[in-house]
Design goal:
Structural class of chain B: alpha+beta
CATH architecture of the largest domain in chain A: 3-Layer(aba) Sandwich
CATH topology of the largest domain in chain B: Uridine Diphospho-n-acetylenolpyruvylglucosamine Reductase, domain 3
Shape of chain A: globular
CATH class of the largest domain in chain B: Alpha Beta
Number of helices of chain A: 6
Strand content of chain A: 15-25%
Number of domains of chain A: 2
CATH topology of the largest domain in chain A: Rossmann fold
Distance between the termini of chain B: 11 Å
CATH class of the largest domain in chain A: Alpha Beta
Oligomer: heterodimer
Number of helices of chain B: 15
Largest interface: A-B, 19 and 23 residues
């Protein structure tokens, strides 16, 4: 079996600061980490590998050259291979353009039996890339998977929804996006770290994946961010202290006026 | 035994006049109770204060102490109350001077690389404040999210980074102290060298509030290392793990920031408490080794070297944390040991012995022999790299309180005897307080205690400043 795990490097939420004026993330000084939710995807693939020693786990990321660090961390945790899609023209890609690029990479370096993703990334927070890849590749999709194991004719997945726990038999190939219920990934071992540190990480460009520059990046992205702002959370309540008949009357009047006028 | 005057309504009124009525707690059991103990588990070392005052200026502290001295009322200074030796417990009642309102960072002097703070500043807040300036205060007690710097200085707190950075005292350059007479004294200053007269700074640092109350503290700060990487090394048994500690210090060629040791009972309690899923069933002891610096490549070289070294010393598995998330995950295990123990063993005594670093393996072994002899557990963990070991003497559930109370003193005397024979002392960083007072003769001579008594009598002739701590004023 060949498993792919898609990981994204994101700013560490412990150290991240927001620019109050622009509403964007200040990347300076904040450390970059593997999207914590993607670690569950890695954990899912690695635990399937413990059932089947012949299985191969490839981690793939799209990002700047520095994203290599995230891939090395995944290798140290037990992944077999890594691939970095690194290309300036991909900058500014929305979820659709991103999934187009990732799907092209999965096709070129595949075939993969299962592709694991986290539920969403902690920076963009869309949760769209996994499903869009399934659509681009024309393969099955299971989302919100909390546990996964090898089954007859596919993978047995438990899918948690708001009302139920669903037992699925996922026919392969498929994209599987997992939740925290998968469990924590281990810690990288010294041997893993040492090997990962010295491994060359293959890098591909968008052109090498057979895509034109116009298909990706800002040009290839139908999404336009018009405005970013902080939602204002203001408690608009009013405190009325009742101490005697007069203030009681004032309070009831105020409540009656509010009810009549509709809550503000 | 000293006899002190009670805190009368008249005294309370005078204290209210000094601090403001809002900042005095008197004849209110419920609000006085939190000031009757520190973080020693159990109720044995508790004592209610008669009154609590919360001054906000040096002058207020001075007036309070002068009044107490004149009326012969004991004064117990208090920081966050996170101590582990009963240092802040008012064993003779009297006045507790809480420093929580004196919580300002007064000055960051970048040109001199120093910071001036009041005693009630939370130790962690100093580093949060310094972070944007690229600076760092290297005193690092494990309870740094709660403890106050004043308490740290009073106890000369150590902590996990002492292997590389030393303890609190190394960073204390100056103190403003209210002496037992109420007099305000300046000691040291913004100086890196100073031999003008007796060196009182190291005497006051670690004096456990028995010589005065700190009202201003000048600390040295250093450039902040950008990164910290950690190794978690798993060993089959405690002997192999503890032997690796002095070996690492002398043989690896690298000075780690910390080397922490946890035996099986310790890390299992912490991992259970944290729901940690690392595979630790095969493991008999763990070492946590950290390095810090600014060049991640160089540091990773050091980590590899240290990791290889630990494997040669018998570690069967070594984990590496070079991200903040993983580092926190590893350190959380170590930091949760005490809390987990308090949960799982209701009857226990937390010890803080310190021995020459090379003796630590033998001491751990002898502790286990003692544990078997008395039928108790003595799990050990702590800052093994600096010879400081936290062992928790823990009674089985089947024991009665009476059996525990009777056995513990005998056991402790023997345990401290082991420490003394190895050239060690009964507290490395928690202090003697009231908890270990009667055990002082196990490790130091009567002549040594006499010198302490003479100093105390000279500076506090009425014995009002935190009496009943460290040593008894009269020999048995």
């Amino acid at each position: 079996m060949r498993y792919a795990v898609l990981i994204k490097q994101v700013p560490d939420t412990r150290t991240v600061r927001m620019d109050e004026k622009t509403g964007t993330v200040v990347r300076d000084g904040s450390q970059a980490v593997i999207n914590p939710l993607d670690l569950y995807a890695l954990k899912a693939a690695l635990s399937l590998k413990t059932e089947d020693a012949a299985a191969n786990v490839t981690v793939i990321s799209m990002g700047p050259a520095a994203a290599e660090k995230a891939l090395r961390e995944a290798l140290a945790l037990g992944a077999d291979d890594a691939l970095l899609i690194c290309d300036r023209v991909a900058a500014g890609s929305d979820t659709m353009a991103t999934s187009k690029i990732l799907a092209a990479a999965l096709r070129k370096f595949g075939p993969f039996d299962a592709i694991f993703t986290g539920e969403r990334a902690t920076d963009g927070d869309t949760g769209q890339v996994g499903p869009e890849i399934a659509s681009a590749l024309g393969v099955g999709l299971a989302t919100y998977v909390g546990s996964v194991k090898t089954g007859q004719g596919g993978l047995e997945a438990e899918r948690k929804t708001e009302n139920d726990v669903e037992q699925w038999l996922v026919h392969l190939p498929a994209v599987i996006s997992v939740t925290k219920a998968i469990g924590e990934v281990g810690l990288p071992t010294l041997a893993g770290k040492k090997a990962a540190r010295r491994r060359p990480i293959p890098t591909v460009t968008v052109a090498e994946l057979g895509l034109a520059a116009e298909e990706v990046g800002l040009n290839g992205s139908p999404t336009r961010v018009v405005k970013i702002f902080h939602p204002s959370i203001g408690r608009k309540g009013r405190r009325i202290t009742v101490v005697d008949e007069t203030t009681l009357q004032q309070a009831t009047d105020a409540i009656a006026a509010m009810v009549k006028g509709g809550a503000q | 035994m000293d006899t002190y005057s009670p805190v009368t309504a008249e005294i309370a009124a005078l204290l209210e006049e000094i601090c403001g009525a809002n900042h005095v707690i008197f004849r209110d059991e419920e609000r006085l109770e939190p000031y009757s103990h520190d973080e020693i588990p159990g109720k044995h070392y508790r004592h209610m204060p008669e009154i609590v005052v919360r001054p906000s200026t040096t002058e207020e502290v001075s007036r309070i102490v002068a009044l107490a001295n004149e009326r012969h009322i004991p004064v117990t200074p208090r920081g966050a109350g996170s101590g582990l030796s009963g240092g802040a417990v008012p064993v003779f009642g009297g006045i507790v001077v809480a420093t929580d309102r004196m919580n300002k960072i007064l000055e960051l002097d970048k040109e001199n690389m120093m910071i001036v703070v009041q005693p009630g500043v939370v130790a962690n807040d100093i580093n949060e404040f310094l972070k944007p300036h690229g600076l760092f205060y290297a005193g690092y007690p494990m309870s740094m999210e709660t403890c106050y710097i004043g308490g740290n200085v009073a106890e000369n707190a150590g902590g996990g980074k002492a292997v590389k950075y030393g303890v609190t005292g190394r960073y204390v350059l100056g103190l403003e102290v209210v002496m037992p007479s109420g007099q305000i004294l300046e000691v040291g200053g913004k100086l890196l060298k100073d031999v003008t007269g007796y060196n009182l700074l190291p005497l006051l640092t670690g004096s456990e509030g028995t010589l005065g109350i700190f009202t201003k503290i000048i600390l040295k700060v250093i450039p902040r290392p950008k990164y910290q990487f950690d190794l978690l090394a798993l060993f089959k048994d405690s002997r192999t793990a503890i032997n690796a500690v002095p070996a690492t210090l002398t043989g690896s060629g690298i000075t780690p920031t910390s080397i922490e040791y946890m035996d099986a009972d310790s890390f299992k309690a912490a991992c259970r408490y944290l729901n940690e899923t690392l595979p630790y069933d095969e493991c008999g002891a763990m070492l946590l080794v950290s390095v810090d610096g600014n060049d991640p490549e160089q540091m990773m070289d050091d980590i590899e070297l240290l990791g290889d070294f630990l494997e040669k010393q018998g570690a069967f598995n070594v984990y590496v944390a070079d991200t903040q998330a993983n580092s926190e995950r590893i350190w959380k295990i170590r930091r949760s040991v005490a809390e987990a123990f308090s949960l799982y063993f209701p009857r226990q005594s937390g010890e803080d012995v310190v021995v020459p670093p090379a003796a630590i393996a033998d001491v751990v072994e002898e502790f286990q022999t003692l544990a078997e002899k008395y039928g108790v557990a003595i799990p050990c963990y702590g800052h093994a790299g600096d010879g400081n070991l936290h062992s928790r003497v823990s009674a089985p559930d089947s024991w009665s309180d009476e059996q525990w109370e009777q056995t513990l003193p005998k056991l402790l005397e023997e345990l401290y005897g082991v420490v003394a024979r190895r050239g060690g002392r009964i507290s490395g960083e928690h202090g003697i307080g009231c908890k270990r007072l009667k055990y002082m003769p196990c490790v130091v001579s009567e002549a040594f205690i006499d010198v302490l008594r003479a100093i105390k009598a000279a500076l506090d002739p009425n014995n009002i400043m935190n009496p009943g701590k460290i040593f008894a004023m009269t020999a048995k």
